[in-house]
Design brief:
This protein is α/β, with parallel strands linked by helices. It has 14 helices and 22 strands. The strands form six sheets. The protein has a seven-stranded mixed sheet, with helices on both faces. The protein has a six-stranded mixed sheet with strand order 9-8-7-10-11-21, with helices on both faces. Strands 5-6-22 form a three-stranded antiparallel sheet, with no helix packed on it. Bound molecules: succinic acid. This is Succinate-semialdehyde dehydrogenase.
Amino acid sequence: MRFPSLFRLSSSLSVARQPHLSRHALNLLRMASTQASAFGLKDPSLIKFQGFIDGKWVDAKNGEKISVTNPATLEELGTVPDMGLSETKEAIDAASRAFPAWSRTTAKHRHDILLKFYSLMKEHHDDLGRLITLENGKPLAEGKGENTYSASFLEWFAEEAVRTYGEHIPSPISNSRNVVIKQPIGVVSILTPWNFPSAMITRKMGAALAAGCTTVIKPPPETPFSALALAELATRAGVPDGVINVVPTLKNVVEVGKEMCENKMVKKVTFTGSTPVAKLLYGMAASTLKKVSIEAGGNAPFIVFDDANVDEAVEAAVICKFRGSGQTCICANRIYVQSSIYADFASRLAEKVAAFKIGNGLEEGITHGPLIHSRAAEKVARHIDDAVAKGAQILVGGKAIPNTSFFLPTVLSDVPIDAQINKEETFGPLASLCKFETEEEVVKLANDSDVGLAGYFFSRDVGRVWRVAERLEVGMVGANTGAISQAVIPFGGVKESGIGREGGHGIEEYMNTKLIVFGGLGMHG
Ligand code: SIN
């Protein structure tokens, strides 16, 4: 594993020819330009070191900053402002002022702007993919893959914008008609996680903008640069001032989050993240009975029956478990394998995992990157220690690399049912294998969880495929596949995994349904 310096200087912004700027402003611009160049993007002006409020790039009022590091090298990438309550209120005010005009634009107008935004994301694919890798650590192929996924939400919701149909309901009352229309809900607070620095924003913002809503985005402090680059591209696409606002925060996260949930001007809150934080935000949003959509934690079962195609199941387990180094809410967390194929499956999976190449995701050939920070590695280690103490065996990996954010991709076999990993998601590169005997037993085990986001299973028995798909208590099932993510699907969970659905028909979550009863129409009968 090598960690070369990632700071490749590329051509800087042209700051010399700015006669209208003061010497101080010019120096600041020069500094930002040099810092931006260090990211090695073809278009360094996508890198922003300020928050974005009412169409302006701004610093925190108190000058505080968040240091953003590359998890692969632990080097500082740059800083963004650590904003607080007052900037959040300003952003909400701006979104509220922008709402009347934006909500009255035609759906076709919003469709066109979103498609332009989508094209810009494609045009800057290499840069945006690189940026995701720099701040999140996932390998470049995955960073670019995320950009494609992220952009697809803009394309999808551009197409949804023009299809927010209402309905006509025949009235039982003479001389009267019932019409239902859909209207944008208002200002939306968007709170997103670091595991998908870009896609979790567009999945929410794309739907909100398409519906005619305006937004205030709180990106995660670990990965704010992708969010800010999106704001820049949105501006280039023609999104008006105030429609998108980005408020990075770290120290003031509690008061910023509270304001985003409680402010009366905000009409909807949407969040992706952990279940404990989801519960806090849900409670705050309840104070004004705001509409919420929440995608919270998962603990996905991945079941391999003895009639499965084992090759395909192993391939799928590799992707499903180790995507983003295991840091997605829909990653397989508990792998249950039927006893007669258990040993075969375990050795094939261990062989694949042993061949992973971990390191800086910008380097050629790297298949898996670091965890977001060393704290994340502590939970993985805790789950391993617990399972091993209860009798599990380490087939591959099993430890963190000291003084880095890397954790060796791990396969554990013979994990007992009462191990911690079977109760809570690891969010790390740890495949935990348990043996089972019968369908009934494994469905019970799979459903023995307070959360239910995704679940996967492999079987070639068509009756079993239907039975198990229907019986799993999750919002999304992968039957003979470990890859379910797409813009077009209703993404979301049951139980404590969340509320509402994103993607698919998720534009509905950003609209109010209004009934208009027309009477006295002068029609008799
Ligand atoms: C998540 O981990 O929250 C999202 C995963 C996805 O959209 O694929």
